[in-house]
Design goal:
The complex is a heterodimer. Chain A is α+β, with helices and mostly antiparallel strands. Chain A has 2 domains: 96 residues, Alpha-Beta Plaits (2-Layer Sandwich), CATH 3.30.70.20; 57 residues, Alpha-Beta Plaits. Chain A is built from 6 helices and 8 strands. By secondary structure, chain B is of the alpha/beta class. Chain B has 11 helices and 26 strands. In chain B, strand 11, helix 6 and strand 12 form a beta-alpha-beta unit. Chain B starts with a strand and ends with a helix. Classes of the chains: A alpha+beta, B alpha/beta. Chains A and B meet through strand 2, strand 3, helix 3, helix 4 and helix 6 of A and helix 8, strand 22, strand 23, helix 9 and helix 10 of B.
Chain lengths: 156, 429
């Protein structure tokens, strides 16, 4: 697997939510926190810092699954695997808001825009070298790379 | 190698894509009785509603067959399969040999056995042609009778209401969507649909469709008459198994598929609405005629046709529907019929929220979420992987119940959660 994606080292994750804020800001119009918070509608995160148990957290989002349930379930052809990068992407012009991806994603990684009837998901920040969440993570729990690189990083 | 696929909707298309990941050059022939099959069947009611434009309905590009080097026999029906000679007879009398065959003939709408069903203005809603025909007569239609309160009936009702028609839905059973959700969820949905002006009559069935040549009304079993110029039949579907049955392929409700989506004949596979597979929640052979199952089965059947040995984990009933901004998703067994099952329910009627999980022996086998649907896929993963949820069952319906909460269950699970992404995410836990 050469797919490069975001991994979270649970041992380092504080659940601080820096990744969530950075994600929302990166997907805002102005891409800058002080002004992004006054945008309407408010920018929306595609990443979540989730509490596992006392003192243990995970930052999670789309895992760009090899055999992605959302792509299989998508009835409009909006959700697709990028042939070059293997990333799971959503073509919002094709999305009709049927929520089949929400129904099938085992990670709860999709966000529903009720009014616009489309879903939002991690796009790995196409305008940046490193995704915003990875850069914002204060403990370097988040990293971008292949699974092999992640394992090495965690000494596993 | 000559691959032949009968049927060109979700399962057939997925099978082509899967075959081409393993075998770039062998000949693939697909047979479809529809002239333009590359549309999404689930989207035809959206098209009828006018909420999407026509180009969105084509879920694969027009060049799909060419791009995948597929010979497409369109507007042609397969009449007969000779399983011994490995030969198919088409309705134009031509014959076609195959090495591996996929039967993905889908299902057809069940038509009511009531008089007047052949009158002008009576339609099922299954194909794009139905949609186009209905659309072409809408100018002359003021009032519509929808027979059936299931998924298709209600989608049709929603679509036609959106087109400014007066719509009455006649539902034989006591509540709408009775195959998919329980009464509590149904009553929330019904309330919303009725608030928006669609009239729903439960416990009432049509007895006769009347009119000279064209429909002008429906006589109901309570004796009253409902005036209308259009009747939509939404009574579910039945699988198109005849061609397989005639060929000596084993059928029950559908064509019986083993875990590799093979029929009882070595080189003949089946997938989609026509296939009968093991149901994960029911733990027995069942029909789940739904888009995601058809795509997944098509993919796996396609791979196995090339010689792979990919196992299908089984099907699971699941549906996602939204009416007038109120969504409902259900998965698995939602209306348990014995006391072996336990239910956990959370309601907030003021917010139109209803959540229910159904458990059996400490494992979730079904779920319904109304209006607060975001994390339902996580519950779906617990169902699929038969995870022991005893330690999280008190928080399972809370809004904060997310992937983080199931991470320890995944770590402890010995059998389930085989997809690599689960392992990757919890490796450091």
């Amino acid at each position: 697997m050469h797919l490069k994606k975001i991994y979270c080292d649970i041992k380092k994750c504080l659940g601080c939510g820096s990744c969530e804020i950075a994600c929302a800001v990166e997907h805002s119009k102005v891409k800058e926190l002080n002004n992004a918070i006054s945008e309407s509608p408010l920018p929306i995160k595609r990443r979540k810092a989730e509490f596992i148990e006392e003192g243990v957290s995970i930052s999670t989002g789309c895992h760009h699954c090899e055999n992605a349930a959302c792509v299989t379930a998508c009835m409009s052809g909006a959700m697709y695997k990028d042939k070059k990068t293997d990333l799971t992407q959503c073509d919002k012009d094709k999305c009709v808001g049927c929520w089949m991806c929400i129904m099938t994603c085992p990670f709860g990684a999709l966000t529903r825009l009720r009014e616009e009837k489309i879903v939002l998901k991690c796009d790995l920040c196409p305008d940046r070298d490193k995704p915003a969440c990875v850069e914002a993570c204060p403990t370097r729990a988040l990293s971008l790379g292949t699974f092999k690189e992640f394992k090495k990083l965690c000494n596993m | 190698m000559q691959y032949v696929i009968i049927g060109s909707s979700a399962a057939g298309i997925s099978a082509i894509e899967a075959i081409r990941t393993k075998d770039e050059s062998s000949k693939i022939t697909i047979i479809s009785d529809e002239k333009n099959p590359l549309y999404s069947r689930c989207l035809i009611s959206y098209l009828l509603a006018g909420t999407i434009d026509e180009k969105k309905i084509w879920y694969r590009p027009a060049s799909f067959f060419k791009d995948n080097k597929v010979e497409a026999l369109l507007g042609i029906r397969a009449d007969k399969i000779n399983a011994v000679e490995k030969e198919i007879t088409l309705n134009n009398k031509e014959k076609l040999k195959f090495d591996r065959l996929l039967i993905a003939t889908g299902a057809s709408p069940k038509l009511e056995n009531i008089s007047g069903i052949d009158k002008k203005g009576v339609f099922p809603l299954r194909t794009i042609d139905h949609t186009i025909e209905i659309q072409s007569m809408l100018d002359k239609v003021k009032s519509v009778a929808v027979l059936g309160g299931g998924l298709i009936g209600l989608r049709a009702a929603y679509a036609l209401k959106n087109r400014g028609k007066d719509v009455g839905v006649f539902v034989k059973s006591g509540s709408i969507l009775s195959q998919i959700i329980d009464k509590d969820a149904a009553s929330l949905m019904q309330k919303r649909i009725e608030e928006k002006g669609i009239r729903i009559f439960t416990g009432v069935a049509a007895k006769e469709i009347i009119g000279a040549k064209s429909v002008n009304g429906v006589i109901l079993d309570n004796g009253s008459k409902h005036d209308c110029e259009l009747v939509i039949i939404g009574k579910g579907v039945s699988p198109n198994i005849e061609i397989a049955k005639d060929a000596g392929i084993k059928t029950n409700w559908g064509i019986l598929a083993n875990e590799h989506l093979r029929t009882n004949v070595e080189d003949i596979f089946t997938a989609g609405d026509v296939a009968e597979t093991n149901d994960i929640a029911l733990e027995e052979s069942s029909m789940n005629a739904i888009w995601p199952a058809a795509c997944e089965q098509g993919r796996i059947a396609g791979l196995n046709m090339t010689g792979e040995s990919e196992a299908y984990e089984g099907s699971l009933a699941m549906n996602s529907i939204e009416f007038f901004g109120l969504p409902v998703i259900s998965v698995g067994i939602t209306k348990p019929k014995s006391d072996k099952y336990k239910e956990i329910i959370k309601k907030d009627t003021s917010k139109n929220i209803y959540k229910k999980v159904v458990l059996k022996d400490g494992v979730i086998v079904g779920v319904i979420f109304v209006n607060s649907i975001e994390n339902i896929g996580i519950i779906g993963a617990l169902i699929k992987n038969k995870a022991d949820v005893s330690r999280v069952k008190d928080i399972i319906l809370e809004d904060y119940f997310d992937y983080g909460k199931i991470a320890p269950l995944i770590k402890e699970s010995k059998r389930g959660f085989r997809e690599p992404e689960f392992k990757e995410t919890i490796m450091t836990l």
